[in-house]
Amino acid sequence: MTNASTLLKEIPVAVPEERWEEANSLPCLLSVDLPVLTFTVRELLRLEPGVILETKSPNSADVPVVVNSRRIGWAEFEVVGHRLGIRITELG
User: Fold this and answer.
1) In a domain? residue 72
2) Cα-based distances in Å from 2 to 7, 11, 39
3) CA–CA separation, 85 and 33 (whole Å)
4) Over the stretch 30-86, which tens digit does the pLDDT of each residue have?
5) In this structure, what CATH number is given to the domain that contains residue 45?
6) What domain range is 56 assigned to?
7) Does residue 64 lie within any of the structural domains?
8) Taking the model in full, what pTM does it have?
9) What are the pLDDT digits (tens) for 1-28?
10) Which residue from 40, 31, 42, 47 is spatially nearest to 86, judged by alpha carbons?
């Protein structure tokens, strides 16, 4: 007797190309988690431009990349012109 997961492995499912086109335009939220040593509501309320927060990570450590609340990989920060960007270092 076969179960549903066995059937899925044995029978490849073809997804029409137009379905992928629809999926490609779906919005998602990408974020980079930066762990801060200690952070309280009091400190949150006192945030203002110019405040520097100390992180748990050394400046060369990779940070987790999260899409829709699920970690998808790791990245490092990089300055690009006058902007701060991330360079993906690992996916998975």
Assistant:
1) yes
2) 7, 12, 52
3) 13
4) 898 887 878 889 988 989 999 888 887 777 788 899 999 899 999 988 888 999 888
5) 2.30.330.10
6) 28-91
7) yes
8) 0.60
9) 555 555 556 666 677 777 777 778 888 8
10) 31
